[in-house]
Amino acid sequence: MENFIEIKNISYKYNKGRTIFDNFSLNLNCEESTVLTGSNGSGKTTLTKLIMGILKIQSGEINIMGNELRNLTLGRTGELIGYVYQYPERQLFAQSVVEELTFPLIFKGVTKEEANLRAQNLIEIFSLEKVKNSYPSFLSYGEKRRLAIASVLMNQPKYLILDEPTASLDAERIESLSSVLDNLKSEKIGILAISHNKDFIKRHGQRLINLEGGKIKDDISL
Ligand SMILES: Nc1ncnc2c1ncn2[C@@H]1O[C@H](COP(=O)(O)OP(=O)(O)OP(=O)(O)O)[C@@H](O)[C@H]1O
Ligand SMILES: [Mg+2]
Predict the structure, then answer these.
(1) Residue extents of the structural domains in the chain
(2) pTM (2 decimals)?
(3) What is the pLDDT of residues 185-204, one digit of tens each?
(4) pLDDT band for position 106 (cuts 50, 70, 90)
(5) Is 61 buried (19+), middle (13-18) or exposed (0-12) by CB count in 10 A?
(6) Domain 3-221 adopts which CATH fold?
(7) Distance 85 CA to ligand 1 centre (A)
(8) Mean pLDDT of 45-68
(9) What whole-number distance in Å separates Cα of residue 190 and Cα of residue 179?
(10) Backbone angles phi, psi at 114, to 5 degrees
(11) Which of 126, 161, 167, 206 fits as disulfide partner to 146, beta carbons 3.0 to 4.6 Å?
(12) Which atom from ligand 1 is nearest to the alpha carbon of 46?
């Protein structure tokens, strides 16, 4: 199995904070979707931000598709790996839901027609039809989360990292998200999801990693 993400002997400590990772290693591939669990403060979000390069490792190495992360721009990493924040309002910037979805693509040179087509498809999948002209800040938490997930899927990433994707979604919306994830899995898009939701873990945790105090406590393939 080829690794999509290789984390080798990394260390990380927050400014004025305590050491979160000390000589930590982990490989992730696209063949099995991985769920990361662990108690509050165990380092789950920190780990995903280090993978994205949003936080910088202090020693060790992270490779994405064989490229050293430090040689990739944040933008390039974001194209390869779609990242949905634990608090999705932090990644919403545009004036409307449609613009939130289409603007980054049009900016990159994708045609307006193609961007609108992809956006409309995701608006339907994530039941955002009613709010498609609304200002993203005014959406409900569940709508914001669905919009944040839809907006990273607009980029058609090769790997997807989701930090607590089911938080604030009702059962029906979790089901729609789950079927989107099943489709991505069948297209060999790798998934790393942080979750405590038992049903979600059962459905998507082909590999289950339990992180405690910045160390891997369990790593099981199911
Ligand atoms: N900006 C920061 N500065 C200093 N310490 C931080 C910062 N962000 C997080 N921490 C600390 O790092 C540790 C790991 O935090 P992290 O957010 O990665 O945990 P988590 O496993 O995602 O927790 P949760 O389940 O609550 O989301 C915690 O003890 C937290 O207090
Ligand atoms: Mg977290």
Answers:
(1) 3-221
(2) 0.94
(3) 999 999 999 999 999 999 99
(4) very high
(5) middle
(6) Rossmann fold (3.40.50)
(7) 13
(8) 97
(9) 15
(10) -65, -45
(11) 126
(12) 18
